[in-house]
Write a structure and sequence with these properties.
Shape: elongated
Number of strands: 13
Helix content: 40-55%
Largest sheet: 6 strands, mixed
CATH class of one domain: Alpha Beta
Structural class: alpha+beta
Distance between the termini: 43 Å
């Protein structure tokens, strides 16, 4: 029999309703509540509040609300507070009841400005320490990579910097030009009045006005151990040393191997890793051979004791001069020796001089880095880098809105990247902790059943045979 149409009459009072009973026991926010003590933020920001005046919203609640914005991938604080009264699980998580008044979205932005970066750095450190205690961080091998973030700003707002504009005007006055000066400042050297910290950077044919997140990802379980936020125009190669130091400060682990792509492969980085006893798995840029079709420099063996090169035919190239402008050493061999060599046409392009080989200062560091690992070891580590480091950025973009800036300014973008990285680590921690708990429960149940069966056998109680199914 068909039921009557469902009609809901509004009630004036509701009795026996509990938000706690409406949130399932296996809900993710319940697990987060068990793992993370958000009340730590009260002691972190206590000195930022006065003793008189209007009572503020509990800092613990504010941190939970900012956490929800990134955990649930909400585009803004305004949208978050508009959805808060509609979500029973969010209300329970933040400690609100059905009839409680929720704060205005402006309270969150004021709290961010008051707290600054330190409170969110501490939240990231708290989650990371729990991952370390759970055995999810080995710390010996790390992957370093970066990713662009589109700023919350339009490229149409780009203007030349006042210093450059003033210099251009001064130059025009010096030349007494009668024409109206034209603004030819490249886009990469312009700034936006809307977000002065954002910068323009072109990569793979795409221009990005915004920021860059440099991450350190541990090899064992993909835990993010450090995150550094910079404007988009900062080169990756200048962040490796700071990233390594941040990883060691955060984990206090015995770091051994650093893995990164060729953007980090410069001599200064190799020298830093060599001096600190670290093994690099970082390819370097191979400059194109100017003499196409000839023997490359890698086919000439360098003799460090004699400071000379040996060519494929076994002849010696001695150093003839230094090019101090580009810090390059030049090695050459007499033309008559090359003239008698069978490889002349494949090796020498000049019609009057012998073969020359250039050696840049610091080449020994590159050769040391190349010899640290075998080809198979490099291939394995670079493969792991793709799904550890690049996979970490992909997960952040797909689930937490990583590729779009919610706020403006370098400090606020640092807060965004810290929160996203902490949430990604927390998700891995939840999977590990509660998967381990489930396995332990199953093992305990099996042991209990086995003990009861052994007790029945030892007590001599008769056990009925299984019925004959035939």
């Amino acid at each position: 029999m068909m039921s009557k149409p469902q009609r809901s009459e509004p009630k004036l009072f509701y009795h026996g309703i509990s938000l706690d009973s409406r949130v399932p026991q296996d809900h993710s926010l319940r697990r987060i509540q068990q793992l993370v003590d958000f009340t730590f933020v009260r002691s972190q920001v206590e000195h930022l509040y006065g003793r008189n005046g209007q009572v503020s919203v509990d800092p613990t609640v504010l941190l939970k609300l900012i956490f929800l914005m990134f955990y649930e991938n909400i585009k803004s604080e305004r949208a978050l507070m508009a959805q808060l009264p509609l979500r029973l699980d969010w209300l329970w998580f933040c400690g609100y009841d059905l009839d409680d008044c929720t704060p205005d979205h402006s309270v969150l932005s004021k709290a961010r400005r008051r707290w600054g970066q330190k409170a969110f750095s501490e939240f990231f450190a708290v989650v990371l320490q729990q991952c370390i205690d759970a055995g999810l961080v080995d710390g010996t091998t790390i992957h370093i990579d970066s990713s662009m973030i589109d700023g919350n700003v339009s490229k149409d707002t780009l203007q030349p910097q006042l210093r450059l504009l003033g210099q251009n005007l001064y130059d025009d006055l010096e030349t007494q030009s009668s024409e109206i000066p034209q603004d030819n400042t490249p886009l990469e050297r312009r700034v936006s009045d809307t977000d002065p910290d954002a910068r323009m950077r072109s990569k793979n044919g795409k221009s990005t006005l915004g920021y860059k997140d440099h991450r350190v990802v541990d090899d064992q379980c993909g835990i993010i151990t450090a995150t550094l936020t910079t404007p988009a125009d900062v080169n990756d190669e200048h962040q490796l040393q700071q990233a390594v130091q941040a990883h060691q400060n955060n984990t206090h682990a015995d770091l051994k191997t650093v893995v990164a792509d060729k953007a980090y492969g410069i001599i200064d980085n190799y020298r830093y890793l060599h001096d600190h006893g670290l093994t690099p798995c970082i390819p370097h840029k191979n400059p194109a051979n100017a003499n196409e079709g000839l023997f490359g420099r890698d086919q000439f063996q360098y003799d460090a004791d004699r400071d000379c090169y040996r060519c494929p035919a076994g002849q010696t190239l001695c150093r003839i001069r230094n090019n101090d402008e580009v810090e390059t050493l030049i090695y050459s061999i007499d033309r008559t020796v090359c003239q008698a060599c069978e490889h002349l046409n494949r090796c020498v392009k000049s019609e009057t001089a012998g073969r020359t080989v250039n050696r840049k200062a610091g080449t020994e560091q590159i050769e040391w880095a190349d010899a640290c690992l075998s080809r198979s070891q490099r291939r394995r580590l670079m493969s792991r880098r793709r799904f550890k480091a690049e996979g970490s950025f992909a997960d952040a973009a797909n689930n937490h809105g990583f590729k779009r800036a919610r706020w403006r300014g370098l400090v606020k973008m640092t807060i965004q990247n810290l929160m996203i990285a902490a949430i990604q680590n927390l998700r891995k921690l939840m999977r590990h902790r509660f998967r381990t708990t489930a396995k332990t429960s199953v093992a305990t149940l099996k042991n209990t059943i086995s003990e009861r069966i052994l007790h029945l056998f030892s007590s001599g109680m008769p056990i009925d045979p299984l019925p004959n199914q035939s």
